[in-house]
Write a structure and sequence with these properties.
This protein has a three-stranded antiparallel β-sheet. A three-stranded antiparallel β-sheet has the order 11-10-12, with no helix packed on it. A two-stranded antiparallel ribbon has the order 4-5. A hairpin with a 2-residue loop joins β6 (98-99) and β7. The chain has five helices and twelve strands. Residues 7-12 and 205-209 have low confidence and may be disordered. Among the domains are: 20-70, no CATH class; 110-204, no CATH class. By secondary structure, it is α+β, with helices and mostly antiparallel strands. The structure holds zinc ion (2 copies). One zinc ion binds next to loops.
């Protein structure tokens, strides 16, 4: 495989080369071959070019691929903290993976989500939450993004995406404590999960609370 020369930051324009063809920058953690975009999930899932590798069959999400990647000059581009960094004119939530200043708006960093769930941290700013925090809940009681947030972070999310709280879209903001939530249908406990859980509102999912 021919390696392309590394781009310098100022050469990264609106359409950086790794967006079209990521395999010189994003490496398979198993076999060190390059990764390419899944045909149907461009910008979300990557597969290994090595057909013998399990990552050729089982796609790798962008946030995981980022951990084994050549330097794209974006270290700490989306850190925890407040205020949030602004990219493409919008504040970037802590759960959104970022490659060289380009947020993957539709993707969720699974490792960060797990940390937010296990430690009761905010999905928007990545900082610890007070015991009473906020979630966006749909009509069926499902918690949007499966994590809670600060009141200020809820306001930021609702201000950036005002349609979230439109009548008809179905999300409403609810103030909750840990006890008000279920993870995969069971009472939530901090720090015990290996994979992220689906969060639901306890009293909207069968009248337990
Ligand atoms: Zn591989
Ligand atoms: Zn927050």
């Amino acid at each position: 495989m021919t390696r392309m020369p590394r781009p310098s930051p100022h050469e990264l324009g609106d359409e950086p080369p790794w967006l079209e063809d990521p395999q010189d920058w994003f490496w398979c953690s198993s076999c060190e071959h390059g990764l390419y975009w899944d045909e149907r999930y461009h910008g979300e899932l990557l597969r290994c070019v090595n057909q013998q590798c399990f990552a050729a069959e089982f796609a790798v999400p962008i946030w995981a691929a980022q951990k084994n990647r050549d330097d794209l000059f974006d270290e700490a581009a989306n850190p925890e903290g407040w205020p949030r960094p602004v990219m493409e004119s919008r504040p970037v939530p802590y759960l959104v993976p970022v490659t060289a200043g380009r947020p993957w708006w539709r993707a969720t960093d699974g490792e960060r989500l797990l940390r937010c769930q296990n430690q009761w941290w905010c999905q928007v700013c990545g900082l610890p939450l007070p015991s009473a925090a906020w979630v966006l809940v749909d009509a069926g009681g499902d918690v949007s993004s499966d994590a809670a947030m600060h009141e200020r972070c809820l306001r930021l999310a609702a201000g950036t995406c005002p349609h979230l709280l439109d009548v008809g879209v179905g999300y409403r903001a609810v103030q909750v404590r840990l006890d008000d939530l279920l993870g995969d249908g069971r009472p939530l406990q901090l720090g015990d999960a290996w994979t992220p859980k689906r969060w639901t509102l306890r009293d909207a999912s069968g009248g337990i609370g």
